[in-house]
Amino acid sequence: GLPPHVDDGALRQMFAQYGEITHANVIKDKVTGMSRNFGFVNFSSPSMAQTAIQAMSGRMVEGKTLQVRLKGAPPTPMGGGAPGGAPPWARGGGAPLAGGMPGGSPYGPPPGRGGG
Predict the structure, then answer these.
(1) What are the two backbone dihedrals, phi and then psi, of residue 62, each rounded to the nearest 5 degrees?
(2) For the residues of 90-110, what is the DSSP string, one character each?
(3) Is residue 6 a contact partner of residue 13, using CB atoms and an 8 Å limit?
(4) What span, in angstroms and rounded, lies between the C-alpha atoms of 58 and 65?
(5) What's the whole-number mean pLDDT along residues 83-102?
(6) CA angle 81, 102, 100 (to 5 degrees)
(7) 8-15 helix and 46-56 helix, angle to the nearest 10 degrees
(8) What single-letter DSSP state applies at residue 25?
(9) CB atoms closer than 10 angstroms to residue 37
(10) Which of 59, 71, 90, 98 could form a disulfide with 86 if both were Cys (CB 3.0 to 4.6 A apart)?
């Protein structure tokens, strides 16, 4: 997430080197007005957005790890892995969060198990 003091201008500045930004917005709590520690950055072209995703995802900013992805894309599983690398469960490390959530893994049963 974003550090709490990052505002729209700072967010724009963080991503400006990757292309022409048409809009940058840090999401704030409606009641308190404080940052919810995430935001949106729109670029003028998809290729600029992809460059920013590749460059900024996983980067540490003031002790916080950025998760940069296209709007609507699922977040990286907890435990992460390198940006662009295989998620931990695809590297033979077991399913993420298995046993850590009620009902087991959020990804369903492993292939060949269950489902009738």
Answers:
(1) 50, 45
(2) GGTS--TTTTTSTTS-TT-SP
(3) no
(4) 6
(5) 36
(6) 35
(7) 90
(8) E
(9) 14
(10) 90
Q: Please tell me the predicted confidence (pLDDT) of residue 102.
A: 35
CA-wise closest residue to 84 among 59, 102, 106, 105: 59
Identity (one letter) of the amino acid at 53? I
11 in helix, strand or coil?
Answer: helix
CA distance 46 to 52: 10
Question: What is the Cα Rg of the chain in Å?
Answer: 17
Structure tokens of 9?
Answer: 């201008």
Token representation of residue 98:
């298995």
Tokens 């963080």 — which residue?
14
How much is the mean pLDDT over the chain? 74
CA proximity to 39, closest of 73, 72, 6, 77: 6
Cβ proximity of 40 and 3 under 8 Å: no
User: Which carries the bigger pLDDT value, residue 96 or residue 18?
Assistant: 18
CB 30 within 8 A of CB 39: no
Distance, first Cα to last Cα, the chain: 40
